[in-house]
Structures are given as structure tokens and as C-alpha cells.
């Protein structure tokens, strides 16, 4: 009788652990894999670079106009992940990463969709291109981002 009792308690404990582990797995599972967004450009977007005179101790802000895209990886050999690092494509094969950390969770950032034309103003850092996993000319530390005409 004791063996059956301990056997049932052990089975209940094992089932409880399976339920907890399964619930934890489903909470943290990634979004379903979907096909990557179409990033083809029908016509090359225009680029507009404005470089005002910097003040003492200030960096030169740059304004670029281009298409909001998923950045291409530098290394396309082997297995590829499905994540999308957003950036700006100003010409065919010319991409810039976007560092939006200065915007502090601005709710207007959620309004941008890949394939849309944007105007981005911020400080351009070309040194990031050397160590980036993406094929970019640099990263813009975004100070202002909006839809472009």
C-alpha cells in the first residue's frame, strides 16, 4: 500500500514539474517564423545630407532620407537567423544602422514600417561599420526621425 501511495505522489510531482516547465517554455517561446519583409526598392531613394557648423564640444548632426529596412548581414554563409535589425537604406547597397537610445521609448517609433521613406537626423558614427554584423556604412545616433515625402 505504501509503495502505491509513494508511487502516486511521485507521479503527481513529475506531472507538476512537466506542467511548470511546459508553461515556462510557452511563455518565452519566440514568435513564429515568418518570411522576411520585402526590401526591394522600386526607385533609389534620395539622400539629403545637411551638415551645420558644430558648436564647441558638439558633434555634427547629419540628416539622411531613405527607406526603413531590415539591415543585411555581412556574412550570408551558413545558417541565418530571422531577427531584423532596423536601419536606413539611402541608395542600393548603402545602409545605415539606427541607434534610437536617445529617443527614450518615444511612442511615435512604433509608427514606422519597413519599406516606408523616413528622414533621420542625428550624429553619424562610421566606426561602428567595422565591428557590426550588418553591411552598414555607420550608425546614426538618432535625435529625430519622421516620415519623409
Describe the protein in words.
This protein has helices at residues 2-28, 128-131; strands spanning 61-70, 86-91, 94-99, 117-125, 139-147. With 149 residues, it is α+β, with helices and mostly antiparallel strands. It has a 5-stranded mixed β-barrel. It is elongated, with a radius of gyration of 24 Å. The N and C termini lie far apart (80 Å). Residues 28-35 and 47-58 have low confidence and may be disordered.
Helix content: 10-25%
Spatial extent as radius of gyration: 24 Å
Poorly predicted regions are 28-35, 47-58
Proportion in β-strands:
25-35%
SS elements, strand count:
5
| Total helical segments | 2
Shape: elongated
Termini separation:
80 Å
Helix/strand order, N-terminal first = HEEEEHE
Structural class: alpha+beta
Question: Strands of the biggest beta sheet: in what spatial order?
Answer: 1-2-3-5-4
Q: Outline the biggest β-sheet.
A: 5 strands, mixed, barrel
Structure characteristics:
149 residues; elongated; alpha+beta; 27% strand
Question: What is the element layout, followed by pairings?
Answer:
Elements: H1 2-28, E1 61-70, E2 86-91, E3 94-99, E4 117-125, H2 128-131, E5 139-147
Parallel strand pairs: 3-5
Antiparallel strand pairs: 1-2, 1-4, 2-3, 4-5
Can you give me a brief rundown of this structure?
The protein has helices at residues 2-28, 128-131; strands at residues 61-70, 86-91, 94-99, 117-125, 139-147. By secondary structure, the chain is an alpha+beta fold. The protein has a five-stranded mixed β-barrel.
